[in-house]
């Protein structure tokens, strides 16, 4: 007997749009079946919400990444790569001291901290010198080192 895979089952974590926070984390508290008019969710503050879906409601919400992937330094390793997952991962990294850089494959994503950071001195340049991109935390010096190596080739 074949069963259809349903990612929207009890305990699945999702992202729902929110007018003030942009995206809000929630967990499904009752299995969802195709055609039902709503998902029953529990928000992080333990309130429950009947989230309308389908033709008269909203599309099914985005699925959340497992906790083990939250804060990864390369967005391409995320299980789900969509707007709320990217924004959440960047936020988690940015809240760590001096983690303003994140990779997305070979692209470096930078968030302006609007503050002076001590991540550009001679000792940091030496630390990234000779290293392969991805061996250390994402940084503009890693990209520069990779470009320099490629020019030499």
From TrEMBL:
Keywords: Actin-binding, ATP-binding, Motor protein, Myosin, Nucleotide-binding. Residues 70-153 form the Myosin motor domain. One of its GO terms (cellular component) is myosin complex. One of its GO terms (molecular function) is ATP binding. InterPro entries: Kinesin_motor_dom_sf, Myosin_head_motor_dom-like, P-loop_NTPase. It comes from the Eukaryota. Belongs to the TRAFAC class myosin-kinesin ATPase superfamily. Myosin family. PANTHER family: MYOSIN (PTHR13140), UNCONVENTIONAL MYOSIN-VB (PTHR13140:SF356). This is Myosin motor domain-containing protein.
């Amino acid at each position: 007997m074949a069963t259809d895979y349903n990612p929207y089952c009890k305990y699945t974590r999702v992202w729902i749009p929110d007018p003030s926070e942009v995206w809000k984390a929630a967990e499904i508290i009752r299995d969802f079946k195709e055609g039902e008019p709503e998902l029953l969710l529990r928000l992080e503050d333990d309130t429950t919400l009947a989230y309308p879906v389908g033709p008269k409601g909203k599309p099914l919400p985005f699925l959340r990444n497992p906790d083990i992937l939250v804060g990864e330094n390369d967005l391409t390793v995320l299980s789900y790569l969509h707007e709320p997952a990217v924004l959440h991962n960047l936020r988690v990294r940015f809240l760590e001291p001096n983690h303003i850089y994140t990779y997305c494959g070979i692209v470096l994503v930078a968030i302006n901290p609007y503050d002076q950071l001590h991540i550009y001195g001679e000792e940091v340049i030496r630390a990234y010198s000779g290293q392969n991109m991805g061996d250390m935390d994402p940084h503009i010096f890693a990209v520069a080192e990779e470009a320099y190596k490629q020019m030499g080739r």
